[in-house]
Amino acid sequence: SQQGEEDPQALSIQEGENATMNCSYKTSINNLQWYRQNSGRGLVHLILIRSNEREKHSGRLRVTLDTSKKSSSLLITASRAADTASYFCATDPLTGNQFYFGTGTSLTVIP
Amino acid sequence: DGGITQSPKYLFRKEGQNVTLSCEQNLNHDAMYWYRQDPGQGLRLIYYSQIVNDFQKGDIAEGYSVSREKKESFPLTVTSAQKNPTAFYLCASSGQRLSNQPQHFGDGTRLSIL
Questions:
Q1: How do residues B30-85 score in pLDDT, each as one tens digit?
Q2: Nearest residue to A65 via CA among B100, A57, B14, A19
Q3: Distance (Å) from the C-alpha of residue A99 to the closest C-alpha of chain B?
Q4: Worst-scoring range by mean pLDDT, A56-65, A91-100, B88-97?
Q5: What is the DSSP string of chain A?
Q6: What is the pLDDT of residue A2?
Q7: H or E stretch covering B7
Q8: Average pLDDT score over chain B
Q9: Which of A21, A66, A81, B104: disulfide with A105, CB 3.0–4.6 Å?
Q10: What are phi and psi of B85, to 5 degrees?
């Protein structure tokens, strides 16, 4: 399977703390994307990082990409209870016509 | 507002019955996708379409069928051959491949067996 893997599978933190989740993948990519999913809802795109970028910021989100290790991390700073959701990485491979999603990290932020 | 609309939100299937899930987008996207999500799992690709009147099987196409007669619409039929259809189904769309555009998702259809 070309599906990526995320770790940890679940993460529970206090409000105000930072949350870090990691994604590993298997193939050469055009870009990597992070998505958020609230319970029972569709996925919402958070940030896209291209293969020639190493770091990208958007508000309280910071994404890094290491193509030599085929891995990425998502950091959420100063977490809020509203950040409670599942987070997925998805790779856009150089070959083929589909995206590949990771298994997801379930984040719980305790008020 | 532009977006993707999935309907119905909840759907129940009787044994031996085919059911069709609707997906409509007004984002003028060329590509559309259907994913299946089981509890606590990631997304698995069922079918995708890069252009009207063309579609390709994904990793778990058995027991499903699709059509792409219009750019805006990509309905998914869950046939009676799919023996374990209970899941959350997500439709997505995106711009052309390798254009560095993310996918946009609908709010899903939850399918259960009666």
A1: 999 999 999 878 899 999 999 999 999 999 999 999 999 999 999 999 999 898 99
A2: A57
A3: 9
A4: A91-100
A5: ----EEE-SEEEEETTS-EEEEEE--S-EEEEEEEEE-TTS-EEEEEEEETT-SEEEETTEEEEEETTTTEEEEEE-S--GGG-EEEEEEEEESSSS--EE---EEEEEE-
A6: 54
A7: strand B4-7
A8: 93
A9: A21
A10: -85, -10
CB of A51 within 8 Å of a chain B CB? The answer is no
Q: Would you place residue B96 in the very low, low, confident or very high pLDDT band (cuts 50, 70, 90)?
A: confident
Which chain B residues have a beta carbon less than 8 Å from that of A35?
Answer: 102-103, 105
Contacting residues for A87 by C-beta, under 8 A, at least 6 apart: A6, A21, A34, A35, A36, A37, A46, A74, A104, A105, A107
Dihedral Cα B61, A85, A31, B49, nearest 10 deg:
30
Which structure tokens are listed for A76? 């959420």
Q: A11 near A21, Cβ under 8 Å?
A: yes
Give the per-residue pLDDT at B62: 96
Residue B80: partners with Cβ closer than 8 Å, 6 or more residues away: B15, B16, B17, B18
B12–chain A nearest CA distance, Å: 16
In terms of residues, how long is chain A?
A: 111
| Structure token pair of residue B14 | 């009787």
Three-state DSSP class for residue B11: strand
- Residue B45, chain A, CB below 8 Å: the answer is yes
- 10 Å Cβ neighbour count for B87? 21
